[in-house]
Inverse folding.
């Protein structure tokens, strides 16, 4: 990761602007990343098929926290269908740099939680795992 | 040819060795031996939860090995590759997981061919005992290929699985899934519901000829590392990703879970779903290196050329000894169907016990195997108690075959 991206990650990890809860989320979803010990809940408000509000909470490490915060800002205004097409590459672009292979799952935890939250909200019977978001 | 053989240190350690037991297990190239030693000396650590560099290196090699396996068999993704301890372990995992998923119930039918290895028989028979499924065997035709008329007869509406070998470890001939798929398309009625799962035992095919899991229309495939020049203790279960995600694992624990609470647990998704516990890390490194070595010498086009010349030579030699030696398998390198025969030769010698034949060959440093080769139903059907099996690999030479037939002649004339 380049130094600008690292600085951005550290800043978001220290002060994640969207960490917390929402009073009336359209859906919430809990996801684990056992290989890194992270556990996270995302809360999302949907309006007109797009994400209008986002928050996350949980016991998360630096990379997970920063990526979840940056991801949450990036998906405001994005349609649920678009988010279902997001992968690690999308998160990498949002962050502005590569994440080491061992931390890619951590960086994608909020994305995975959001995708599975959308599936549950839509009751489409699908359940994504890391094989769906990381090549 | 000399260069390939010289890549295998066993032949330097034993210059007089005539190793013709490769269908049982293949010898290892120096590349594999060196890579395993280097990994254990310089790169070994556990995967999944280590933050340190060695763990990351291990994780990377483990993933790379699955990428290589996926490339070898035409799989869509490394996530479709799951490791078990061997092909038998992979079949047990698959059969029990299908049962646990409710995909097999009392009265459902599993169709096998009569020439299957026990690894592709016993796990289904265990479900016959525990669930009450049917296990039915399809006969072979006179060319040792699947009897398609018998297959059509036994393809009943309750058939949920067809599981066939891609290459028999006795006859050297496999079941052609293209023909199987055509037969299913032709005979399966819409009102019978979903067509059966298609499973290939590719253990003997992968070391000799290409496997394309997509082109063969397969749902699952099983094979093992040690027959394709890697170490023992690593078997492969390939499955379509959507099936692996839906199938409930029959084994659990370790890292293959999302959470474990005192009142329950949740199984994880891919890639950990079917691999609880610490995996065979050195086995994965050996498999990765074996595939890379295999690709470096030209892959299937190169070894097919070498092996087909050996097969033709062996068949010519067997043909000169038909009064004393009976070959259990095709006598031509190319079958009337166009199928290619692999270099696995099971035979009996008139008036000689199979163990005595194998012992006499062993006494002259010629390594073969005697028995039913874990294919007892086929031997019973052939009304023979066992066979001697001679089998080749890419490092086998014409000299090996000459020595084999020279000793065989001595045995015949004893």
């Amino acid at each position: 990761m380049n130094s600008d991206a690292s600085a951005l990650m550290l800043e978001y990890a220290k002060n994640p602007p969207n960490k917390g809860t929402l009073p009336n989320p359209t859906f919430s979803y809990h996801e684990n990343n056992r290989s890194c010990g992270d556990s996270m809940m995302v809360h999302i408000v949907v309006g007109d098929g797009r994400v209008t509000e986002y928050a996350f909470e949980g016991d998360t490490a630096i990379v997970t926290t920063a990526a979840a915060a940056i991801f949450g800002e990036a998906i405001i205004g994005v349609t649920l269908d678009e988010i279902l097409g997001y992968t690690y590459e999308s998160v990498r672009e949002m962050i502005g740099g590569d994440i080491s292979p061992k931390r890619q799952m951590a960086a994608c935890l909020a994305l995975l939680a959001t995708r599975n939250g959308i599936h549950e909200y839509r009751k489409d019977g699908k359940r994504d795992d890391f094989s769906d978001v990381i090549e | 040819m000399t260069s390939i053989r010289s890549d295998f240190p066993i032949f330097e350690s034993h210059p007089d060795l005539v190793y013709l037991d490769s269908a049982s297990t293949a010898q290892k190239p120096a590349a594999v031996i060196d890579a395993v030693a280097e990994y254990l000396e310089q790169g070994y650590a556990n995967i999944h939860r280590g933050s340190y560099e060695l763990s990351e290196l291990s994780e990377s090699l483990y993933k790379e090995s699955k990428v290589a396996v996926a490339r070898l068999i035409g799989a869509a993704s490394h996530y479709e590759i799951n490791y078990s301890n061997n092909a038998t372990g992979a079949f047990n995992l698959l059969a029990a997981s299908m049962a646990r998923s409710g995909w097999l119930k009392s009265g459902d039918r599993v169709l096998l061919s009569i020439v299957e290895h026990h690894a592709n028989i016993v796990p289904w028979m265990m479900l016959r005992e525990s669930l009450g499924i049917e296990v039915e065997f399809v006969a072979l035709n006179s060319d040792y290929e699947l009897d398609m008329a018998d297959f059509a007869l036994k393809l009943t509406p309750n058939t949920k699985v067809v599981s066939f070998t891609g290459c028999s470890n006795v006859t050297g001939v496999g079941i052609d899934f293209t023909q199987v798929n055509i037969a299913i398309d032709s005979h399966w009625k819409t009102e019978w519901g979903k067509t059966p799962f298609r499973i290939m035992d590719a253990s003997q095919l992968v070391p000799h000829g290409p496997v394309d899991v997509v082109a063969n229309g397969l749902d699952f495939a099983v094979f093992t590392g040690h027959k394709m020049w890697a170490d023992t203790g690593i078997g492969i279960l390939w499955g379509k990703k959507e099936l692996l995600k839906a199938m409930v694992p029959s084994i659990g624990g370790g890292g293959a879970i999302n959470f474990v609470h005192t009142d329950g647990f949740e199984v994880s998704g891919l890639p950990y779903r079917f691999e609880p516990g610490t995996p065979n890390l050195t086995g994965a490194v050996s498999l990765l290196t074996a595939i890379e070595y295999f690709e470096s010498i030209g892959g299937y086009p190169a070894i097919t050329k070498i092996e087909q010349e050996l097969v033709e030579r062996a068949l010519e030699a067997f043909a000169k000894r038909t009064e004393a030696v009976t070959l259990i398998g095709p006598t031509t390198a190319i079958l009337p169907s166009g199928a290619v025969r692999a270099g696995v030769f099971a035979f009996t010698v008139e008036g000689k016990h199979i163990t005595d034949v194998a012992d006499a060959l062993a006494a002259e440093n010629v390594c073969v195997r005697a028995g039913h080769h874990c294919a007892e139903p086929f031997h019973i059907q052939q009304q023979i108690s066992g066979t001697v099996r001679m089998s080749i690999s890419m490092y086998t030479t014409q000299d090996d075959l000459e020595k084999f037939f020279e000793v065989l002649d001595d045995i015949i004339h004893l």
